[in-house]
Amino acid sequence: MVRGVGSRKQTQQGEGPEGSERTCLITRAKLAPDDLLRFVLSPDGVVVPDLRRKLPGRGAWVQASRDAVAEAVHRKAFARGFKAPAQAGGDLPDLVDALLVKDALQSLSMANKAGFVLAGAFKVEQEIAQRAPAALIEAKDGSPDGARKIVAALFRRWPEAAGETPRVELFDSGQLDLALGRTNVIHAALRKGAASDAFLARCRRLARYRAGGLAEAAPQDSVPQAETGGESADEPSDQPARDRGSE
């Protein structure tokens, strides 16, 4: 969960085409790339998530929600969209979730190396005493009392900013430990900066994916093809992807 303004959609800069729409294989709704997930085919016909939209080959686009990906698998939409045999197992929604988590935690690790992360309840409280944080991070398996204490300190010190401060509750302590290179991470704070913004954008993307739901479906029952031209243009290459996962 991402509370506060963290639930608001923001664009990830530098990822994917700007100012163009794509058509969802399932709903046929035309959406911005940031509201969709791109998939390509591997050389052996396996559907591969391409989170960063950089893998070669024709791309098929699905609304960025677990429900939409599961529906695409159930309806065999990828095979019809690519007009080719496409293996998409029932675990594809879980694979996408795992890749989104990995992407977010890698971004958190980069923010930490850049000096934008303060980990530990004491350091978080010290940071709050000096400046309003860009966001608070709470391990989802941490104590609710500890989180309430930190939030209360934020409201006392920065009452106007506190209500607009995102609270990230998407990861357990083990995941935060690995990302930050230390043990028993339950509480952390982000300082304002581009690295923090990049991490929060990925958290929002993960939260939207898990929230589920489908855009309003078009009346037609047909599924759009994966395209290399027109308004849903993708890479011009017809070669299948060489990698099985997102970078």
Give me a quick take on this structure:
The protein is an alpha+beta fold.
Report the sheet-strand fraction. Answer: 5-15%
SSE pattern, N- to C-terminal: EEEEEEHHHEHEHHEHEH
Strand line-up of the largest beta sheet? 1-9-8-10-7
CATH superfamily of the largest domain: Ribosomal protein L30/S12
User: How many distinct helices?
Assistant: 8
User: How much helicity do the residues have?
Assistant: 25-40%
Largest sheet: 5 strands, mixed
Low-confidence stretches: 5-18, 217-224, 227-233, 235-240, 242-247
Number of strands: 10
The CATH topology of the largest domain turns out to be 60s Ribosomal Protein L30, Chain: A
Distance between the ends: 24 Å
Q: Using only CA atoms, what is the Rg? A: 20 Å
Q: How many distinct folded domains?
A: 2
State the secondary-structure class. alpha+beta
What is the second-level CATH architecture of the largest domain? 2-Layer Sandwich
CATH class of the largest domain: Alpha Beta
Average pLDDT rating: 85
Features:
single chain, 247 residues, alpha+beta, Hypothetical Cytosolic Protein, Chain: A, 60s Ribosomal Protein L30, Chain: A, 2 domains, five-stranded mixed β-sheet, three-stranded antiparallel β-sheet, 8 helices, 37% helix, 13% strand, elongated, disordered C terminus
Give a verbal description of the structure.
- It is a single chain.
- With 247 residues, the protein is an alpha+beta fold.
- The chain has 2 domains: 13-90 and 215-232, YlxR-like (Hypothetical Cytosolic Protein, Chain: A), CATH 3.30.1230.10; 97-209, Ribosomal protein L30/S12 (60s Ribosomal Protein L30, Chain: A, 2-Layer Sandwich), CATH 3.30.1330.30.
- It has 8 helices and 10 strands.
- It has helices spanning 66-74, 77-82, 92-113, 121-130, 144-157, 159-162, 173-180, 194-211; strands spanning 2-3, 22-23, 30-31, 36-41, 47-49, 60-63, 117-119, 135-138, 167-168, 187-190.
- The strands form 3 sheets. It has a 5-stranded mixed beta sheet with strand order 1-9-8-10-7.
- The longest helix has 22 residues, at 92-113.
- It is elongated, with a radius of gyration of 20 Å.
